[in-house]
Design brief:
381 residues; seven-stranded mixed sheet; 12 helices
Length: 381
Amino acid sequence: MRFALDKEQDELRSVAREFLADFSPEPVVRRLMAADEQHDRPMWTKMGGELGLAGLAVPEEYGGAGYTFVELGVVLEELGRALAVTPFLASVVMATTLLLATGDEAAKHDYLPGLADGRLIGTVALAEDAGKWTGESVGMRATGTGDGWVLDGHKSFVLDLLSAGLVFVVARADAGLGVFAVEPGAAGLARQPLPVLDQTRKQGRLTCTATPARLIGTLEHGWAAVDRMLDLTAIAVSAEMLGGAQRTLEMAVAYAGVREQFGRPIGSFQAIKHKCATMLVEIEAARSAVYYALWAAATDSPDLAATASLTKAFCSDTYLLAAGENLQIHGGIGYTWEHPAHLYFKRAKNCALFLGGPDFHREQLVQRIGIRADIEVRRSP
């Protein structure tokens, strides 16, 4: 594996950063936070259609660019840095990777071209009121009708639900868990926005009452596809967190260089130096974890699942630390609504809880690498 981005990937980063500086500066982010508008449609159209970012990691046979998860991670890092209000994570990462994982060729040909150019926005509905992202927590029922399926139940914390033209719902049938496609005009379907801490990331609640749905893939392999999507999304969120954490470090260092106390910049004080140094060390460690995880996703490495859990847990802690220290270094001004520091702290908290918190992913890591089983064997007489 390479330990740095190549020239083409660096150019992709530059293009994404320049685009977001023009189309998603802080005033635009704040406008979208306060508005009923779910995202900036002209910006999304340009991202998907003109820049081709929505189809970056979609195979060419389905209308995508055919790049890997590494290139997708480069864009996600920049989106996290800018706190961009887009359905990129929900549609480009969650919906697209889930559809690819199902192996349903007919569904891929039906939906992937629209997802790849941004004309179709997708999302995934898995978690319910308990906020858990496990198969055991799925309560929504899927019932066969002879000529199709109907869904009954509800889902919560669905990313960009009100923007989505296609929702992949994870539901429980008698034969197991399956992935079902539901379109907005389906009978018995209701969608409503949810109040959120991080207003840059829209969420909604989905209710189905005898709602017609299309089974994607098979019930036998339904959860395997969802599990892969969760691992890839955990890595994608970690890339976003890396970008946000890096931005908070830059903000903290810049402010420490200009804010004066007792006739000298606060950055000259040892306590502030320690804070910035700690942020830097943790962020660079997170960068190594994220880049390895992106490589593991791109090459379908055997340790992908363990790497996803490790990276998500570590980056969650790192982003919360960096965002918190940035607030501390800014002092009182960092806690005001007008300053962007609190926006990054809220995003850090949202990302940490999304798909399960750090403790959940550490527990998953323990199970995936077999540490607990080894401990039990050693304890047995």
